[in-house]
């Protein structure tokens, strides 16, 4: 979005040069309006906090075309006069004359460069992630199971809208109460680049879908089986001595097939030399070498591995998420939505059930971040019930009392806690 607004600023200012001979002060006025529009469009992009369902790119195109047409009309007469009076004058000479006039006029120079300089300053990255409010995903629209019955109630997963901070959003965090800043060091692992962080967060989301499927089907006494298991490298410490890469799938260690974490740990503890690791990378098998390092007095490879377990179920679960989701915090609510679709009755009792919390393969609910923003979204969407992890409950309860939220806040430590509450509060 930012590059588009920057492009509008440059394009408009270039037209100002052409328009140099037109009415005194017109260019300065238009650029002031343009700068205000840049800020407006940028703010609108973050106004999703208020659930404005509109494409910012469409706004940008409309704004660009408006100013382009405005400038064409404003300089039409002037350009026509030049063509009539200077038919024999070359276009190049005409352009040079305009440029000379432009740089002789301080007002025109300021109006050209000021929007660009201000925009560039606003886009300077800062070492923070900015939380910009919360939202919710209607899970019943994103998950389908063959033969499911219609239910009156609904499940929504709460989330936080977050982006890498720039000067503009950083300043907004001091003005807008619902904007919060969080140091990058609190979000990413040491020496982790943005692409590795995004890969890890995407993987956390897909593994939460897998865990949700397993837990829901087992709780509903439906058939679910492991179909595949992968060991994926999701982080490499800066001290690691290895040519492994984030995203590598580990196939063999010292020529033995890997089946579980314990096997990998055994190889490390028993080895006194380099370890050969066969991985699948970009569809090809590649042998890599890793040297052991000492971390906190123990021998380590200096990598973090995640086990991605896929399941087949009967009936099959179809997920329709758009690919933009990341992180594991929707796990609990996804599990509840799947479970409800497997039941022949509505476990929501016709209520709007919102919530947040990770889920593991045993059905335990884990702590999440951004509870303040998620509760704002739940209140805005008029939730009846909001499930939160027990680790977040005290903070959430304080916010509910402070803001006088009307929904029922429920603390859960496991998936069964949530089911028990719904069964006992019909």
Describe the structure.
- The chain has about 425 residues and is of the alpha+beta class.
- About 45% of the residues lie in helices and about 25% in strands.
- The protein has 13 helices and 19 strands.
- Strands 5, 6, 7, 8, 9, 10 and 13 form a 7-stranded antiparallel β-sheet that branches. The protein has a 6-stranded mixed β-sheet with strand order 4-1-3-15-18-19, sandwiched between helices.
- Strand 7 (about 250-255) and strand 8 (about 255) form a beta hairpin.
- Helix 1 runs antiparallel to helix 2 (about 25-45).
- The chain is globular.
- The protein starts with a helix and ends with a helix.
- Mean pLDDT is about 80; it is low at about 1-30, about 45-60 and about 70-85.
């Amino acid at each position: 979005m930012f590059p588009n607004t920057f492009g509008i600023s440059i394009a408009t200012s270039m037209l100002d040069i052409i328009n140099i001979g037109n009415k005194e002060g017109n260019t300065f006025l238009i650029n002031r309006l343009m700068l205000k529009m840049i800020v407006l469009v940028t703010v609108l992009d973050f106004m999703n906090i208020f659930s404005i369902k509109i494409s910012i790119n469409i706004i940008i195109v409309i704004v660009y075309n408006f100013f382009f047409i405005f400038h064409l009309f404003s300089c039409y007469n002037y350009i026509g006069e030049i063509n009539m009076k200077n038919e024999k004058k070359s276009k190049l000479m005409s352009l040079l004359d305009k440029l000379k006039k432009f740089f002789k006029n301080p007002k025109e120079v300021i109006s050209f460069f000021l929007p660009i300089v201000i925009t560039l300053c606003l886009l300077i990255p800062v070492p923070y992630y900015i939380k910009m409010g919360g939202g919710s995903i209607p899970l019943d629209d994103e998950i389908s199971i063959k033969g499911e019955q219609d239910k009156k109630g609904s499940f929504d997963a709460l989330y936080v809208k977050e982006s890498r901070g720039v000067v503009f959003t950083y300043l907004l965090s001091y003005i807008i109460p619902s904007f919060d800043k969080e140091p990058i060091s609190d979000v990413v692992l040491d020496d982790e680049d943005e692409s590795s962080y995004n890969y890890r967060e995407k993987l956390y989301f897909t593994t939460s879908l897998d865990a949700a499927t397993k837990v829901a089907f087992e709780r509903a006494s439906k058939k679910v089986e492991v179909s595949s298991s992968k060991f994926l490298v999701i982080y490499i410490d800066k001290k690691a001595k290895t040519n492994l890469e984030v995203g590598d799938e580990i196939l063999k260690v010292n020529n033995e097939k890997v089946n579980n974490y314990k096997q990998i740990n055994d190889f490390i503890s028993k080895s006194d030399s380099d370890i050969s690791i066969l991985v699948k990378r970009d569809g090809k098998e590649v042998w890599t070498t890793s040297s052991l390092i000492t971390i906190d007095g123990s021998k380590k490879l200096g990598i973090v591995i995640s086990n991605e377990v896929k399941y087949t179920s009967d009936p099959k679960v179809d997920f329709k998420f758009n690919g933009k989701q990341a992180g594991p915090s929707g796990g609990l609510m996804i599990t509840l939505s799947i479970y409800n679709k497997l039941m022949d009755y509505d476990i929501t009792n016709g209520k709007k059930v919102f919530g947040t919390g990770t889920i593991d393969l045993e059905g335990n609910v884990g702590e999440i971040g951004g509870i303040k923003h998620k509760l704002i979204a739940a209140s805005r969407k008029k939730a009846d019930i909001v499930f939160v992890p027990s680790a977040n409950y005290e903070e959430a309860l304080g916010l509910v009392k402070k803001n006088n939220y009307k929904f029922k806040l429920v603390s859960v430590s496991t998936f069964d806690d949530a089911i028990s509450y719904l069964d006992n509060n019909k």
